[in-house]
Structure formats: structure tokens, C-alpha cells
Design a protein that fits this description.
Elements (H helix, E strand, L loop, with lengths): L1 H26 L6 E2 L4 H9 L12 E6 L4 H16 L3 E6 L13 H13 L2 H8 L18 H22 L9 E5 L5 E5 L6 H8 L2
Parallel strand pairs: 2-3
Antiparallel strand pairs: 1-5, 2-4, 4-5
Helix pairs in contact: 2-6, 4-6
Length: 211
Amino acid sequence: MRRFKLWGSIVLILAVIAAGVWATWSFELRWRPKTITRHQAEIVQLIEHSGWVSPGLKGKPLYMVSFRSCPDCIRFRTEEFPALQAANVDTRVIEIARRDVNGLAKSTPIERATVAQLWLTRDWKLLEAWEAVPVEAWKAPGVPPADGDMARLAVVESGRSMVDRLRPLLKDNGVDLRYPTLIWWNDEGQMRACACEKRQTYRFVRKELGA
């Protein structure tokens, strides 16, 4: 009987420890951003030389890789950009037009035209105008088409190539590139990144950027 009670106590303790470990991982560790320690120079070159657009604030930069109709990207911009920008964070949005997959279109002619224009002009007001209306309602007024224009299509392809090159570099640091993927630097100067699809990740971004 004593041995049975002893084993029962051990099992109970182990169960409590396992539950605590699971809870810590489920509610905390799994949502934390990763520190980028490998390929830093290559990653910086890719994001800094991309066609990002921003409001031109003077604080810390936050790069967001996105596409216009991405619901998680829309939610992050809507819910988090106001506080981040109020904290002087320079929200640098890198919009891409995704490649077709297995014959299925992942972007529209209007989207490709707008992405090309954003990369070429860095026009934050154009991005705001695009985001101010539903995706299907955007007609890209005054924006030249990209389809049929080799130079503008090359710009669109540059965004896709950037994602192709960025994906394995982030993977080597434990970050799966999804949308939105965020990259920034914390107060210690560490490069940080996350695939911030879920709201549970937002608090870490806000804290590290002082928002």
C-alpha cells in the first residue's frame, strides 16, 4: 500500500509538472518572437532594398511582409499600427503580389499594378488609399497597369523573389515565413522576427517596440 501511494504521488507530481510545461508552452513560449542570429546581413539587405513604404517616422523600424487581401495582415494593421505609430515606430510595409500556384491565380491585375507602383514610388498615401476600401472595390485610379509592361512586371517579380530568398534565411532562425512576417530590433539591438498570424503574438511586438 505504501509503495502504491508513493508511485501515485510520483505520478501526480509528474502530471503537475507536465501540465505546467504544457501551459507555459501553449500560452507563452510558442508565441514569442525569435532572435535572428544567422544570415543577419543577407536579411537586412533584402528588406532594406525592397520596395517598402512607411509614414516616415523617426523611431524604430518595423518591417512587415504582407499581401493586400491577407486577413491576418489586415487585422494586424488595423489593430496594432495606430499604437505603434503613436510610439514613433516606423511601420515599413512590404507588399507583394503572390505567384500563381498550380494554375490558380493568387493576385489580380489591379493588385500587381498597385504593388509595382508602391515599390517604385514608396507612396504611403497610395497604400493608405488602397487599404481604405475593400479589396474588391479598389480600382487603382491613376496607377499604370503592370501587365504588359515588362519593367513593372519585373518589379512585381522582385517582390516574389525577395520572399523566395528570405524564406530559407528565416527558416534557419526558426521562423516560418507566413503573412504577416514581422522583423524589427529590440532595445538590446537584437534582430527579432515572428510570423505574427495570431493575436497572441501582438503583445510581444508591442512590448519590444515600446508601444
